[in-house]
Amino acid sequence: MESQPASPGFGASLQLKDCIEELLRFTLVSSIDGTLEIDLGLSKDYCSTLLQEDPSNPFPNSTGLSEGVPLYPLYKRLAASLYEAISSEALPRTENKLAVMQETSSLKQKEEEWASLIREKGSHLLNVLKSVDFELHVQEPYFSLLRNGQKTVEGRCAVGHYNKYDFIMTCAFILINKCLILQVQDVCHYHSFREMLEAESLKEVLPGVDTTEEGVQVYRKFYSEEKERSNGVLAISVKKLVSQPSIDLSCMLSVRIEIERCMSSPNSESNFFQELSYAGVQRLLGFICTAGAVSEALPPPTSSLISSFLLPHNPNTKGCTLTDGARALSKHVNRSSDRYWGSFSGSVHCYFWKAIPRCLTMKFFF
């Protein structure tokens, strides 16, 4: 079922940038509720934080890649970074202003491995999307029913491109809600939804609906009786593909590659795994990690970061002007070769009001 009775979109115009955000959101949600086909390798709390909104965000209209602390929801920043990485076949560049964060050979090797993984999986994802013939939008609960295979027949009024009977052909690929690919198994034409529901299996068209009359009323919410009589109805039998965009995206976020070593070598390793996981996601989000960084850490919402510079660290101590943000920032003031944070002198109030803009405009670090 669709939110509005519209014609299908052509797959030829489908671009990765048009679906990467929704595809990533779908992948994270599926990982949280346990319906993702493979293990994403990221905790549920981590995925939930990536999806979290910031209702008090002072910059609600900022989108895409930008310098500074990434805005919530973080998955949008991650999606933009993934799109850039897949399109350019390289990790997005980061500007490193902290002397302690000069690239090591180990970090460089990891980044080369991550870039290689993104090129491989990104190429496969692009090929999957290129195979799409048209797009449809399906509302819940019918989207979930299509996804789990309970619903195998999609009924549509034959308006717009649907009235070209040969437009939707057997073996065509449909992208549902920009994240799920189904393959057309058969297409049948009927004069009405009632005729379709009587000819097809009701449990395959509308699982959970008990009678034909009840099913007709479901479709009546989307199509008028006049439009139904004028255009007729299509029953599109579909099957879910094993290869899904969400699987390719999952493999980019947490990839394990088994490298078979030469068994004749005395120092051979038969099973070696390389994971993108948290460190790779942090890199895609533009984070800079210092020694002792927490691997699963994510930045707080911008509104919380600003609030931390306004609230005293010890509110019960009379005359205390040290804030939580000031206390945390003081640990990093000497980690810059070009005095990026300014001179650590003067009153706490004056110094840290100068430092706040730096926090909001530089790459975030731990």
TrEMBL record:
Listed Pfam families: ASCH
CDD domains per the UniProt record, alphabetical: ASCH_PF0470_like
Protein name as annotated: ASCH domain-containing protein
Domain ASCH residue range list: 136-242
InterPro entries linked to this entry: ASCH_domain, PUA-like_sf
